[in-house]
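Q: Protein A?
A:
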Amino acid sequence: MRRLLLWLVLIIVALGSVSFSVPLASGGEGYELVRNLSSEKKKVRRSASRKLLEKKDLSVLPAMVDALFFTPRHLRTEVIATLEGLSGEKIGNSYHGWVEYVGSRTDIQPRAGYLEWKGEIFSRLDPQFRKIFYSGAPYRIRLEEILSGGVRLDGIPSLDNPRHVPASEAKFMRAKERVFGVTVGGQHRAYPVRVLSWHEMLNDVIGGEPVTLSFCTLCGSGIAYATKTPNGKAYTFGTSGLLYRSNKLMYDRQSYTLWSNLTGEPVVGRLALTSLKLPVLPNTITTWSGWVERHPDTTVMVPDNRLAARWRFDYTSGAADRMRRGVAFPVWQKSDRLGRDTEIYALNIEGAAKAYPIEILLEQGVVNDQLGEARLVLLADRSTGAVRAYGSGGLTFRRGESDTELLDDSDRLWRVTEEALVSAGIEPLERLPGHSAFWFGWYGFYPQTEVYEAP
């Protein structure tokens, strides 16, 4: 892929406009029959459908739904008929509907060899997927819920060690444009959202520490992670082109392991059964002017116009969102408690999850709350849209004279920094690992989540 437009084209292709002819390795009669359901020969398709229906083996349903994604529409008749015959459901030609059905059927275990099948089916787009889905590869998520976004590994190019300049030299920035503000080791850096919306993945060094900023544009979550390895080196990440519950799966280029954008955990591949989890770094979505006002010593990433031209990316604000309009992937766990794309501030503290509608936070400004055993305070700035969360140490806070000051219930003054709340002679109260997200994406991972309601 040489531009995001081609990514969208590939999705359309995968949904049924062009046939793929890459042969798959053997994987048992069940998988051979599933392959034959997409044969160019009608007799082969009908024979495969008849045999699958006679066997009444539900374990092939996940593989059939995988195959449906890659099957041209004019060859889908037998696939759909077999899916409906085995499941007893009338979902028709809706790929999204079948994905949600299989996702909800947690009682169905995929047929033996499904891991290898997954590697084979994804290798139709890129043979390198076999480095992830190999025989015996460990995994900690349901393989049947891993979907192709229609692109190869690194088909959406990451930004690696991009150039940055001091704020005083950033004439290309507009005061009200949105940025990701990241702080590490006392060093501040801003990344324009209009650029990250195209690339979705960034590897950089801030304050002497390697970091990755992973931005899942489909579910609205942009999270900064520390990426130093246990041996002191660094993981570098790319976009895998795969999704899990409409949340992007990134992969590290050192071990070809898939990682969750939302949790920072390895989920499929060589590192999946380790105890590794990427530490979350302070990261704020705010305006450029708001970030510079707080951090006049910040640097900012310089958009690479040559890279944009090569990939035909338009780095103007909103351009990437317009290109992606209408692109969506299915999530089987749903809730109408909030609107599907309601923007929330998401927190997960020691297994306790909570969603805070950002509109409510902006109205209230300061919210004192409790999540599990943790007492916390959330600060929201209506002028910039920025939200930050901190442990409260059991104190109750209110706004001070400025956006960078708080007063506690003893009228002590606290200074708001990116990494902690600070007051003279008192232990700092550390920043909590929160981030923005769309409601549907958060709920898909955390159906047990609480939802904050205005008092």
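Q: Protein B?
A:
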Amino acid sequence: MLEQRIEQHFIDSADLKYQSAQILSKPIAAAVQAIFASVTSGGKVLACGNGGSAADAQHFAAEFVGRYERERPELAAIALTTDSSILTAIANDYDFNVIFSKQVRAFGAAGDVLLALSTSGNSANVLAAIEAAHEREMTVVALTGRSGGKMTHALRETDVHICVPHERTARIQEVHLLVLHCICDGVDTQLLGDQEPLA
């Protein structure tokens, strides 16, 4: 019984990834272009999200600053989820909903990209970060699920929305990780050409 349940998780995840491939390939390519244009012009990516999405933001930043699969120059990315002193000071002195937006206003500049992750699309602090990014004339790459939530209405035409067509948080997060890997691979391919990755 347990083994069948585990197998079903794998099947459901694989099915969603297969369905998402056709739906999401175009917006993922647009995200690659936006991020590539930013980092090759001296810009950076600021990434944020809550819970599992916070972990994804940190995962992305690590692969951008370090490497994904091939050696290349370092790329500028900052996860806004990692400095406990900043996060707790802002949450305590102001409000939890501005923990990311205040950092965007501090670190963001025109030409930078905000990578905003929210499986529901309704995270108030991520929505506030999007508003702050627009104030700074940044492009937003939003990763959501379900129907995209409130983030659908917060985004501009110049932003990129990658919305996973599923209701279940775990499945959405599994696709988000694949999307982030696709973005890393796409940027590396733009920088280095179509080469074999490291073993």
